[in-house]
């Protein structure tokens, strides 16, 4: 696996909180989240619905305002009040791909318009000819034809629509893409196409991804590092293979145990592990902090838990050596 | 299966839909048996006809669709001949129940959970309000709703997605059906909740002994729920067999392709396999093997003549010319060979730790 930690940090979240307010009720959706994403890597954010993973993605593209902390992009703060110029820079350089390809495309616009909208807004073309060339190139790069330009989203299948969504992000030549469950709504055979496509773009253009998902098995193939999020807090963060080999936080373990594997024998032997936050952690005496367990492997734990995780970690390490 | 009594027997089934003035053939000459007490998985891409197939068992085809040929035998009757509501009402929801994908649309948002369960019990089992309430609370307990008595009077929006799906299952089981059709029951749910719902269905099946028909596009889910698997493509069963046969000794190139495209199997840094092209339009007559244009293993004959079902073992059948004795011998793709060994190596360590 390539090591991206030496690359510069492209995106940095510093102690962010996001609080939603409804009347007098407050709901803390994101609770003190920090992480860095390095240029060229794919960073996955995995958690169940309601964990806050999408909220973080939306905060990065400036849809959800932060209540505390800051987000930096290439060293500049992009959260809170920023200059108009920087705002445009962010819009252009950080693009988002959404989960539902049916809902995220304007159904009354042609494919040509949908893909060009960003170009129009930013005047990223000299003349009509250049714009058309760009749109055609973008369509071709996602495996669609230039004759598709005049059609409407409803004329396409789910997989094709998702590729239109990807084409309209790619045409902006962004440096960073937030991909929010881009394959969850797709058929298994089409998922593979979309994953390959995202990977190709990364190789060709050195793109950086934040990949949001709820299924760890899908994420394993595409991501370099994984952060597991539960109820607005990151509970574990590690390099992909490291996380699969040495999961220590009980929530990560429950996610791993739930992955549906295409293997009847393993499924029969499956031991479903259900996470129960209230019963598994006693934080009454000491609150947990985010600590480094091994090189680049972080976990949310208090000191008692941390000692236990550490012990567990070394015993797994020994076991793996044994089996080799 | 030790017990080989067919509870449903489908013979040469054809289902067509009228769309404007055109005719779409969604199910093309399908024959198979579902055995009493088993759990059968039906796998296919969107548009393969997997939902249409099972809708014919309960008479729930859309108005523009109908069974145009063939028979569906259930309890000594050919239900394909049914054409009145009263005939279907004897079966639907009583003997054969369905759990659909989206629990929010299956439940009425402005009525309490309790009343939606008791309604079914009162209607089909002639119970009084009090008796029905008692039974409903028992059922809610059974499907794993904590504080059932208290939550009886709550509304669907007060339940999480997983809990709602549990309620839909409770309603489906209220009349002790002989067959439970699960139509992508966990596709809209998180993986952790999905695993819990699957476990719940399996446990309930053990307790009540009903037969499960499980429809999904996810082969991982099938591996955990099914005793047997039928793979559907373009309205036909292309391969059917015991779950081990389908996963460890698949014979149809389409099954190979489905398995190969799973991200669970992919090595990081490699390219994921994907199936080129799209399924054929079912508005036109399909010539030869429907999968041929997308099949890298296709033979010449695949484009002209439809393959018959070849028998591989007592329980395993596949519809591909590759099984003809005259066909060249083809090995399945490397990625799906030694599937169990590969997946064990990748997932076992992380999974075994508790």
Give keywords.
heterodimer; A: Rossmann fold; 8-stranded mixed sheet; 4-stranded antiparallel sheet; B: about 350 residues; alpha/beta; 12 helices; about 30% helix
Largest sheet of chain B: 8 strands, mixed
Main β sheet profile of chain A: 8 strands, mixed
Measured distance between first and last alpha carbons of chain B: 33 Å
Structural class of chain B: alpha/beta
CATH superfamily of chain A: P-loop containing nucleotide triphosphate hydrolases
Q: What is the arithmetic mean of pLDDT of chain B?
A: 92
Domain count of chain A: 1
| Count of runs of 4 or more consecutive helical residues of chain B | 12
Round the mean pLDDT of chain A to the nearest integer and report it.
91
What is the tally of beta strands of chain A? Answer: 12
Low-pLDDT stretches of chain B are none
The CATH architecture of chain A is 3-Layer(aba) Sandwich
Shape of chain A: globular
Low-confidence parts of chain A: none
CATH fold descriptor of chain A: Rossmann fold
Q: For the CA atoms, what is the radius of gyration of chain B?
A: 21 Å
Q: Cα distance, first to last residue of chain A?
A: 20 Å
**Helical proportion of chain B, percent range:** 25-40%
Overall 3D shape of chain B = globular
């Amino acid at each position: 696996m390539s090591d991206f930690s030496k690359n510069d940090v492209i995106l940095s979240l510093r102690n962010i909180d996001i609080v939603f307010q409804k009347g007098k009720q407050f709901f803390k959706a994101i609770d003190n989240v920090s992480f860095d994403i390095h240029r060229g890597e794919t960073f996955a954010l995995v958690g169940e619905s309601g964990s806050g993973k999408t909220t973080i993605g939306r905060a990065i593209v400036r849809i959800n305002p932060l209540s505390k902390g800051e987000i930096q992009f290439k060293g500049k703060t992009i959260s809170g009040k920023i200059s108009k110029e920087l705002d445009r820079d962010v819009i252009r350089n950080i693009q988002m791909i959404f989960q539902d390809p049916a809902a995220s495309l304007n159904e009354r616009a042609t494919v040509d318009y949908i893909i060009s909208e960003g170009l129009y807004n930013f005047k990223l073309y000299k003349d009509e000819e250049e714009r058309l060339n760009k749109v055609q190139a973008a369509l071709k790069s996602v495996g669609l034809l230039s004759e598709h330009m005049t059609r409407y989203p409803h004329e396409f299948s789910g997989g094709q629509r998702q590729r239109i969504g990807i084409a309209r992000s790619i045409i902006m030549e962004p440096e960073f893409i937030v991909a929010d469950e881009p394959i969850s709504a797709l058929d298994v055979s089409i998922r593979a196409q979309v994953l390959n496509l995202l990977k190709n773009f990364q190789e060709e253009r050195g793109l950086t991804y934040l990949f949001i998902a709820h299924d760890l098995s899908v994420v394993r193939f595409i991501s370099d590092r994984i952060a597991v999020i539960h109820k607005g807090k990151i509970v574990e963060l590690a390099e992909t293979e490291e996380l699969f080999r040495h999961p220590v936080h009980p929530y990560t373990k429950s996610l791993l145990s739930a992955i549906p594997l295409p293997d009847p024998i393993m499924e029969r032997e499956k031991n479903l592990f259900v996470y129960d936050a209230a019963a598994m952690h006693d934080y009454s005496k000491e609150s947990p902090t985010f600590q480094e367990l091994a090189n680049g492997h972080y976990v949310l734990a208090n000191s008692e838990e941390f000692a236990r995780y550490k012990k567990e970690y070394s015993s797994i390490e020994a076991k793996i050596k044994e089996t080799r | 299966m030790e017990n080989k009594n067919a509870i449903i027997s489908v013979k040469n089934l054809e289902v067509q839909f009228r769309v404007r003035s055109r005719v779409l053939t969604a199910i093309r000459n399908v024959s198979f048996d579902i055995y009493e007490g088993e759990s059968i998985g039906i796998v296919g891409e969107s548009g393969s006809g997997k939902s249409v197939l099972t809708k014919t068992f309960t008479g729930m085809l859309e108005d523009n669709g109908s069974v145009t040929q063939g028979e569906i035998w259930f309890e000594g009757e050919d239900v394909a001949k049914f054409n009145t509501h009263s005939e279907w009402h004897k079966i639907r929801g009583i003997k054969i129940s369905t759990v659909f994908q989206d629990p929010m649309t299956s439940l009425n948002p402005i009525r309490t959970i309790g009343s939606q369960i008791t309604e079914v019990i009162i209607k089909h089992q002639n119970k009084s309000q009090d008796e029905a309430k008692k039974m409903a609370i028992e059922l809610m307990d059974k499907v794993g709703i904590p504080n059932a008595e208290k939550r009886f009077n709550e509304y669907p929006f007060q339940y999480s997605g997983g809990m709602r799906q549990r309620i839909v299952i409770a309603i489906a089981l209220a009349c002790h059906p002989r067959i439970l059709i699960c139509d992508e029951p966990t596709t809209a749910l998180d993986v952790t909740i999905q695993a819990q719902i699957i476990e719940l269905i399996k446990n309930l099946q053990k307790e009540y002994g009903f037969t499960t028909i499980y429809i999904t596009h996810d082969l991982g889910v099938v591996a955990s729920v099914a005793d047997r698997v039928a793979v559907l493509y373009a309205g036909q069963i292309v391969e059917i067999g015991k779950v081990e046969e389908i996963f460890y000794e698949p014979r149809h190139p389409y099954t190979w392709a489905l398995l190969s495209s799973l991200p669970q199997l992919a090595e990081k840094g490699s390219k994921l396999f994907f199936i080129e092209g799209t399924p054929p339009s079912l508005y036109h007559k399909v010539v030869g093997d429907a999968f041929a244009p997308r099949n890298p293993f296709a033979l010449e004959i695949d484009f002209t003549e439809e393959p018959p079902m070849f028998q591989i073992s007592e329980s395993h059948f596949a519809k591909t010319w590759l099984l003809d004795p005259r066909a060249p011998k083809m090995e399945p793709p490397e990625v799906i060979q030694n599937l169990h060994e590969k997946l064990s190596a990748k997932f076992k360590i992380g999974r075994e730790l508790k």
